[in-house]
Structure formats: structure tokens, C-alpha cells
């Protein structure tokens, strides 16, 4: 919700309607709770470096805001 202008998800693309953790992450031994807290970003061949930088800045800003709320 804090990253409304980015397209990302918490699960795999093929299970987008499910709230289950990624079967790939759990399959390689990632604990369920950690897998449930993962984010999936998708990049295309036309994604630019500046778009990635902007996404990282937005993620950094959102995480800082969430951390401040948790205190």
C-alpha cells in the first residue's frame, strides 16, 4: 500500500490470487514467515536504470516511514 505507484507483489506471478508464500522460496528452504514477507519486483527489457533507481528510492522511503510507525 505504501508503494502505490509501483507494480509489485508478495507472491509468485503464477499464484497472484493466493496468499500462500512463494513455493520457490519455501522450496529452497526459506522459512514460511520470511517467505510471506518477501516482495517480487518484475522488470522488462524496456525497464530503465532510472526507473529502477526511482523504485529503490520509493522502497527506501516507504520502509523508513513504516519503521517510524512501528516505534
Description:
- The chain is globular.
- Helix content is 45%, strand content 6%.
- The chain has two domains: 8-40, no CATH class; 45-71.
- With 71 residues, the chain is mostly helical.
Cα gyration radius (Å): 14 Å
Portion of residues within helices: 40-55%
Specify the number of helices: 3
> Which term fits the overall shape?
globular
Beta-strand share of residues? 5-15%
Uncertain stretches of 5 or more adjacent residues:
none
Largest sheet, spatial ordering of strands: 1-2
Tally of discrete structural domains: 2
Secondary-structure-based class equals mainly alpha
How far from one another are the termini? 19 Å
Kindly list the characteristics that best describe this protein.
71 residues, 2 domains, 3 helices
Explain the layout of strands and helices.
Blueprint: E1 8-9, H1 23-27, H2 32-36, E2 40-41, H3 49-70
Antiparallel strand pairs: 1-2
